[in-house]
Amino acid sequence: MSRRQWFLAAAVSISALTITPSTASPASAVAGKCSRVGAVRAISGVAHVCILVGKKKIWIPKSTRGKTTTTSTTKSEKIKPGLPRSTVDRPGSGIWDIKVVYATMMDGPDEFRDSNGQLAYVAERISDYFARQRPGYELRFDRFGGSIDVQHVKLPVTAAEFRAKFQREGQGWEIPKFIQASMAAAGLRFSWTGEDGSNRYGLERRMYLLFLEGPRGLKQGAEYQCGRVSELEAGALLTAVNLRNNAGAECDKVVEFESDPANKWWRLAWDAIRFIGHASLELPGCHAERAAEIAASIEMRLENRLPANDVLSNQWNPPPFGTEPVMDPKGMYYLNIRSGPYLGNRCRDIKFSPFWAKDPKWWAPPLKESNSGERTRIDRADDSTEPQVKVFYLLPKGAIDRQIDLKLSNMDKTANEWLRTQTGRTLRWDTYQNVLDVAFVQLDQTEEELWTDEISSMPCAEVPCPTPDYLLGQLQARGLIAAHKLAVILYEGSASPVNPQLGGCYAGGSMVVAYQMCISSPIATPSRAVPVPNGTLGIRLLHEIFHTLGAVGESAPNGDGGYGHIRGDSNDIMAVGSRTGWEVDPGRDDYWGHGRTDLVDLTRSIFLNDPVSGAEYPNRWRR
């Protein structure tokens, strides 16, 4: 049996480890009982650790403990084994994600924290913490088969050689260059274009958490142990958390975690959490502002201006138990900013970081409506040859398929019934055998890939990506949209989260795009998630369709001066904000039935059934 097979086969829970004096190693049998779980000592020249077996505390060699693939708490919770060891990056997101790396030295030690589940456990706890700070979202960690993918990298140096690099740090960027080369050899992309740090900001679309089974070395000429290799950060999306002190022993935070992971993971995770919080401010398009923050005087840096209970504050220390720290609870500094000098500055708010992923329980809850009909990837034969509204359901690669296209068979009918009660008119929808014809389109890119400039061919830090034009182009490239059809695109994804002005829906040109936010919104608890009611969604889309048809004109008496909405009547379908009802231009003086030729009047739209003489396309119509 190979050594790796032995490790994989040794899936033994420490809390349930059946070690007895007769089965333990001679050294542990001689060692006898111990008093504090997690304590470490040398016995006969062999490092031992104190563990709990049943109700007894005994010493076992650390090498025995390190060869197990399941670690557990002193309570009932067990750390499950991680994925098998891999020295390559397994298939995953690969973009706007956080990659966990376990790095060891040539001369060891190697505790197999990548495959025994320890680092995956810590990463999951970190993810849970950030999710608690921003409900409805979670960090996008690199995963394989649903599990955190921890890659093993053996650094081509001994521990002594690694420490020596810190002593030479004043000669240049030796540590960053070394880590860059080591990661490149492991197939992990990372680069710096300037040794002076001038071009190091926001270059990468990946964040790296290295857990280093080795020492920290000197920092500014002094011993600095069991923290982070902060020389790697300085505006970069990379840090290394040290697991051993400069004498080669496990750091106290590691020993405590191993003794009780469920309650003592915080100290091990703290450096990583602080790094992620700061690195998330490395937003696309915000290089200069972030560089200025890093270059500021010590007392003016963010971590020194936060309250003591904030996790990013230099004043906060992780307790072994007790109250969990918070992230910007007043919304003034860096998360969900609601007041203060940074209000409206997206470069200061990590909610615009692309490293957030939407929690599917909130953003893509199962729909209550039953399916009807069959999925189609083509535009089926039309019941009418007149201009009409065509609905599409676009699914990014890897997104949850809620089969919305199969749940909308009555949407056109309920929307038209409401519109008829308001105006006596109805909208002409694309139907096949008198049933709404919704075409399904599977995109070739993931949601995150569509946030990149290269694919969307737009500056995604400034405009919503994928842009409506890009999505319409996908329909045109597939030959799915005719020139006389208004496209309503239900996109099962979000626009790039780097623009505070982005909404959930877009209307313009010859299309309506309803991003996922417009289709369904997160609410207090997933169990109360609101599905897409056929009628409600149809009426909501009428607002956007009316925009595309030209409402509300710039000179409308109750308009907002060119932004397309009604002011002063919250019940008007073309108003924005909260409402108590829905009405179509109740005064018949803004966009419906006013008879003026100098102002948009939707009763003249060519997309209505029974069109009036001289019915026309909107002025902005284009194909």
Q: Any overview of this molecule?
A:
With 623 residues, this protein is α/β, with parallel strands linked by helices. It has four domains: 3-76, no CATH class; 97-300, no CATH class; 363-549, 3-Layer(aba) Sandwich (Collagenase (Catalytic Domain)), CATH 3.40.390; 551-604, no CATH class. 22% of the residues lie in helices and 16% in strands. It has 16 helices and 22 strands. The strands form eight sheets. Strands 19-16-20-22-21 form a five-stranded mixed beta sheet, with helices on both faces. The chain has a four-stranded parallel beta sheet with strand order 10-6-11-14, covered by helices on one side. A three-stranded antiparallel beta sheet has the order 1-2-3. Strand 21 and strand 22 (511-514) form a beta hairpin. The protein is elongated, with a radius of gyration of 30 Å. The chain starts with a helix and ends in a 75-residue tail after the last helix. Mean pLDDT is 80; it is low at 1-31, 63-76, 193-202 and 521-535.
